[in-house]
Amino acid sequence: MTTAPAGLPGAGLPAVWQRVRGGSSLLPIVAALVGIWLVLGAVDPAFLAPENLVNLTLQSAPVGVIALGVVLVLLVGQIDLSVGSLSGVAAAVVAVGSVTLGWPVALAILAALVCGVVVGLGYGVLSTRLGLPSFVFTLAGLLFLAGVQLRVLGPLGSINLPFESWFVRSVQQGFLPTPVAWGLVVAIVAAYAAVQVTARARRRRADLPAAGVGQVVLRTAGLAAVLSVVVAYLGAARGIGYSVVLFAGLVVVADVLLRRTRWGRSVRAVGGDRRAAMLAGVPVRRTVVLCFVACSTLAALGGVLAAGRLGAANQGTGGADTYLVAIAAAVIGGTSLFGGRGSAWSAVLGVLVIQSIANGLTLMNVDQAARYMVTGAVLLLAIIIDMLVRKRREV
Amino acid sequence: MSEPLLPAPLLSVRGVSKRFGGVRALVDVDVDVREHEVLAVVGDNGAGKSTLAGVLAGAHRPDAGEVLLDGRPVVLDSPAAARALGIAAVFQELALVDDLDVVENLFLGHETLRGPLLDEVAMEREAWRLLDQLAASVPSVRDPVRTLSGGQRQVVAVARALLGSPRVVVLDEPTASLGVRQTAEVLNLILRLRERGHAVVLVSHQAGDLQAVADRIVVLRLGRVHDVFDGDASYEDLLAAMTGAVRPSARTSREARR
């Protein structure tokens, strides 16, 4: 090795600062979230009550799942404006399938997810074969799917799901039993530590710069602390809902896929520089199609969760501002609108920011108008930051 | 050099033409390159050099003609297809993804796997080995390519082409953004590639570089093979051919295919 290798990414304070400036760190948005919580908690202590935070997590899960899909299409340099309508279609399919047609709930859910896959494939073909801009064809999709949703729901316009079905009960009232929650914490921390330690050992064997022991201990302890606080605090009320567990699990899976697999690397490469990725031999079309399919499927899943949470599907499910909240959450969480830069975790953080503001302002009896304006201002701020980071990178 | 002794060409271009709208970038071009040979392609701006490189690398599909590998026609319809056949290219625009780091760029599309996941350790080691081989002074292989200088980026692009020991290496203006020392390194590298038996196609308009390493020099002019020289051709001859000051010699078409 002729050149002295610089530290690992994330090693040392200067490296952390560089990543913050480069826009590839989640620290600023975490800090912003903590700040919002402190302010809202100071104004109205009820906001930080365990029961309210449990509500916050339950409110966040469905739109968070949708936002996770949006992160994937944004990463590959595209956008999907129809995620709200599609989630509405999925909710309608679940309701009509399980109630009107009498299918087993699992089959109805499967049918809803298949709708998502089909729509995503269609978008992928429009984007990669015809070269249409996704902004336009997903706008068409938004309108078309809103029509499909109304047609599926039929003249009633609203279908209630039976409360006794396992699906509604687990989404509305299903919470991790406390021992299971703590068991999960232990398992996750142990797995994380094992991964860190083996990675360190392999790198040292290969004579590559490796994280110090202190760093590994610090990271593991940090993760353990965060998870313990979450479980203990939410456990003081109802705990962690199954839909929240599902959302968190999907984010972890997406994060591993994006950072540790060939597909994930293709996604970032295609979003960062499509032509360069193509010349390097990346299967650009397949990557883009898969992102659209993943996004649409997650949007459908988000709609299914929304239907379960509401215990019904109606014309308003997935309507109004759902798609805007999902896209805003992805961007606020630090995923760039310009492609190539972002993280699965930005779906979690962005949704928490938006839902915290909405939740807090509702507690304070602030009206809908002010909530929209505040959320809009936060989104604008996030886009300005995204733009500034991008400009600095181009210099 | 008596013709019967020449080995069969590794890569041949036969009657290739390519249009971009109304522009005829290549017209009925015949070129051969063999193992252990550096074939230089020169020409003025717009002579079709980069288009020829693009055809060989799978970035452009010819409108007419064919490309033969080991005497068999092959379809190079994508850079990935060319790569799979053992033809690697360094493009003039380098084709690096700025937001990815050096290791990620080097292995893009050909990542080393360990089970279903990426083997970052193996890739990072191989990256250091390759870059050391090229005497590259890259501060860290985990820095985004965006933070590197023009020369460092060039070396990364060349290193990427060498991964997996391709049979043919196509270099489009590999020294355009390099300093004196790095240019010498790249030229050295080209000679080492030839020693190792690779066929090298070197596209450049820097005649000095070519004379140092080329076995044969093909001069393109207005999309056609204008003339072919041995590697020791004089600078004046090359310049005259590039600018069209002399008419193509009678041997042109025969020599290019030699």
Automatic annotation (TrEMBL), chain A:
GO terms for molecular function: transmembrane transporter activity. The chain crosses the membrane at residues 26-47, 53-76, 83-101, 107-126, 135-154, 174-195, 216-234, 240-258, 288-308, 320-338, 345-364, 370-389. Keywords: Cell inner membrane, Cell membrane, Membrane, Sugar transport, Transmembrane, Transmembrane helix, Transport. CDD domains: TM_PBP1_transp_AraH_like (cd06579). InterPro entries: ABC_transp_permease. It is a multi-pass membrane protein. PANTHER family: ABC TRANSPORTER PERMEASE PROTEIN YPHD-RELATED-RELATED, XYLOSE TRANSPORT SYSTEM PERMEASE PROTEIN XYLH. Part of the binding-protein-dependent transport system for D-xylose. Probably responsible for the translocation of the substrate across the membrane. This is Xylose transport system permease protein XylH. It comes from Promicromonospora citrea.
UniProtKB/TrEMBL annotation, chain B:
GO terms for molecular function: ATP binding; ATP hydrolysis activity. Residues 11-247 form the ABC transporter domain. Keywords: ATP-binding, Nucleotide-binding. SUPFAM superfamilies: P-loop containing nucleoside triphosphate hydrolases (SSF52540). SMART domains: AAA. PANTHER family: CARBOHYDRATE TRANSPORT ATP-BINDING PROTEIN MG119-RELATED, SUGAR ABC TRANSPORTER ATP-BINDING PROTEIN. This is ABC transporter ATP-binding protein.
